[in-house]
Amino acid sequence: MTLDVEFSDDRQTFQNSQEFQTIKAFIHEHLLNRIEELGAEFGRWSRSSIQQFVNLECESLVRLHRVPINSQETQLLAEALTKEFAGFGPLEDMLNDPAVEDILINGSKQIYVSKHGVLQKAVLNFADNAHLMRIVRRILAPIGRRLDESNPMVDARLSDGGRINVVIEPLVINGPVVSIRKFRKDPLTPEDLLKLGTFDLAMAQLLEMAVRARCNILISGGTSSGKTALLNALASFVPDNERVVTIEDTAELALNHPHVVRMESRPGSYDGAGNVSIRDLLRNSLRMRPDRIIVGEVRGAEVIEMLQAMNTGHDGSMGTIHASSPRECLYRLEMLAGFAGYQGSEVSLRRQIANAIDFIIQIGRLPNGGRRIISISEITGLNDNVVAMQELFRYEPQPLPDGDERDRWISLGISPHSPKIVRLRQVLQRQHKDS
């Protein structure tokens, strides 16, 4: 075990050294010349063939030029160069690591990675900004997205369901800024979130009942707080015989449901032509006979169509929104509607919000990286022209003698007043009696 750790440390030391970068650049240049000689034939090679080719060339060059490295270091160089020619270079291991949630790159020498909600500096770097751009363009190539001085920002969905955002000069100063958000291949279920401590059993039962009763739910929280994961989990409570339409800027949701129509907005071209917004998709979705509409993130003019849909028979709809508290969530809805040109009065808008939304779930990320539901609030109507709500559950961690904290949620002892939940309870009670 000690030898394994020492070898791992030696690997990291060598890979992060200037010597490694210098030798790698030298062999890389040689390989480019060899590939040019091979021409189109190289493009037809499998990854294993490329790996074999790189291994042989590396060993040959190291012997020929008497490069002072051992066989293990030669193998490390060969592995790195194989990733350069057949994969995504220094990013490949992180992209394949299921524990990695976010990869944040601020120029070629500053790379951070988020694992289990905790951000830390990664022990790797690119040779220079040109090297970074070469890998970024390779990631973008299958998507067909353009990245150059005339179009210096790209936000796109990756083939594996993840998301990449790139900003280059002249909009950034110290090299390309790349943000990659990864998503689990198997979305977390309510049972998984319960085990992870996102909420407790009583809250899980309430959330299941709210979804099955076709309550309209907004999940509110900050960036990387777990909104999408929670929305995915809640959607598993939707009955199989219902048709679900999801609408997103960049498709991230992966609902565990048999009948899902996934829609994704489209940015316009350089001159703005061809743009299809979430608002356009939301309007069109109403003609698609949806039982439920799920908006990945409410952040623009689509808020008006969403509220109208929730008020006109599309019960059970859900969405996420960036806000720091349930009350702030309501303020944000009002603000977005105002920006979208809402023509009615403030009271009329608040009445629409109060009639449309049944529950607001506030979720947050703790300093240790854990995601927790901070509160569950029910919208109860309009009181003195203000949207009234009552908090049903609140997160209040219990301090421990050792300075740590234990998860604890306080039930306020209030039963939901929503008529939808009351009706569902009555149906379940009748079914129980009949059985």
From TrEMBL:
Domain (Bacterial type II secretion system protein E) ranges: 86-362
UniProt family annotation: Belongs to the GSP E family.
SUPFAM superfamilies with a match to the protein in the record: P-loop containing nucleoside triphosphate hydrolases (SSF52540)
A Pfam family: T2SSE
CDD domains noted in UniProt: VirB11-like_ATPase
UniProt organism field: Hydrogenophaga taeniospiralis CCUG 15921
Domain of life per record: Bacteria
Record-given protein name: Type II secretion system protein E
